[in-house]
Amino acid sequence: MLNTIVSRRSALKAGLSFSLAASMPVRSLLAAPKKTEFLLRAEPARVALAGKAHPNTSVWSYNGQVPGPEIRARQGERLKFIVENRLDEETTVHSHGLRMPNAMDGVPHVTQKPIMPGETFTYEFDVPDAGAYWYHPHSNSAEQIGRGLSGPMIVEEREPIEVDRDITWVLDDWRLTSNAAISDDFGNRMDAGMAGRLGNTVTINGRVPDAFQVRAGERIRLRLINTTNARIFGLDFGGHRPRIIAYDGQPVEPHEPPGGRIVLGPAMRVDLVIDMTNEPKNSFPVVDRFYPSQTYKLIDVVYSDKPPLRNSPLTSSIRLPVNTMPEPGIERALRHEIAFRGGMMSGMSGGMMGGGGMMGGMMGRMMSGKGMWTINGVAFEGPVMEPLLKLERGRSHVLTLRNETAWYHPIHLHGHSFRVIARNGRKTRYREWQDTVLIAPREAADIAFVADNPGDWMFHCHIAEHLAAGMMGIVRVS
Ligand SMILES: [Cu+2]
Predict the structure, then answer these.
(1) How far is the CA of 230 from the centre of ligand 1 (A)?
(2) How far apart are CA 104 and CA 126, in angstroms?
(3) Domain 8-157: CATH superfamily, name plus number
(4) What separation in Å is there between the alpha carbon of 416 and the centre of ligand 1?
(5) What pTM was computed for the model?
(6) CA–centroid distance, residue 194 to ligand 1 (Å)
(7) Most buried of 65, 133, 213, 215 (most Cβ within 10 A)?
(8) Each residue's pLDDT tens digit, 379-413
(9) What is the fold of 334-477?
(10) 409: CA distance to ligand 1 center in Å?
(11) What is the DSSP string of 219-279?
């Protein structure tokens, strides 16, 4: 069972708000009309993560809040944000999923010098594509993200679909002690070699959730963003028929979730349209069923007693306008094989590098503290390494990603979105654009894209503990 330490009633009393506080990001009045500016201060803070019945939790925050302030822009605008480092260690900010020039990608020692304590760094780039994204550090990621450094980034369509409310849920997962303090066992080898740092307290927009208030008849666009280190969600919106309209911010043919569950690995996003088709005063739990032995209720969808907003659901289209990614030519694409290996309980794939036999290699790496995971035989020990893959710029490429481990991995490529065109050799139904693809144990996924963005791009598992333990490499586009 998920050990939720929190009083749900206290979370409700605390005034659960699903619109993120808009006070801190400053829309500069002096800026040109199409430039949106924000200030992000990375700093320690204390927040009521677990509710009033528990002590506040010391976190690392942007602008004193968890999650960080919502960065919101319109498609085609120029986005600028200044990061001020008030932590005691270096940091950077990576804008996950946005396509931008390499120098703005926020990877320490690869695309920029780290931002040292007391320093600032300005990120500025155009946002070509609408969608739901997020930002987080790429320095000491497991601890910095695990202590609270992340925030949502929303790029609005020029012509959005018709909904009554557009709501973002930043989903996070915390490992808290009985005093609601963040457990400081970052970097432990069990997390690194297995499922990553799973916590015991799940929050929505920085609070343990209780009720999501809705009105009968309304149509809600719900943007889900998984900012956890390691937790995979499999959400069941019982009593409703949510339709997925975007993965990782990118439009997809609207469809009901396969198997009835919305699955999100770390770093992944899903946009839903949900028509609130039930009667007033009803209540429906949203249940996370991803880990079969750890099913728990995330939140209740609670209908107010107001009469229905309308008698039958809106009929306007929920199909999002397409974004700007170039279409890969599969026939002419260059093909590449990528194998992910390592971790505990991986059987024959566990110790193929470093000699020493199956368990020997694994144990040896664990004892030595070196990488437990490899990509094509190499564990990232950074910060600067030879690229694991060099892609010819302007060409279409298909990468077959083989998960030869016993664990799930959400694999993320910087600087590009890709189509997921096949799984285990079978074509996918929606050929969805993603920037992070969740690959099951022993599964293979084929991804296709045009390598149109020059630079050295990180390619890594987004389970932060796997990334820290070697599951990262560089893809060079030139
Ligand atoms: Cu992984």
Answers:
(1) 8
(2) 10
(3) Cupredoxins -  blue copper proteins (2.60.40.420)
(4) 19
(5) 0.90
(6) 9
(7) 133
(8) 998 777 899 999 999 999 999 999 999 999 999 99
(9) Immunoglobulin-like (2.60.40)
(10) 4
(11) EEEEEEEE--SSPPEEEEETT---EEEEETTEEEEEEPPGGG-EEE-TT-EEEEEEE--SP
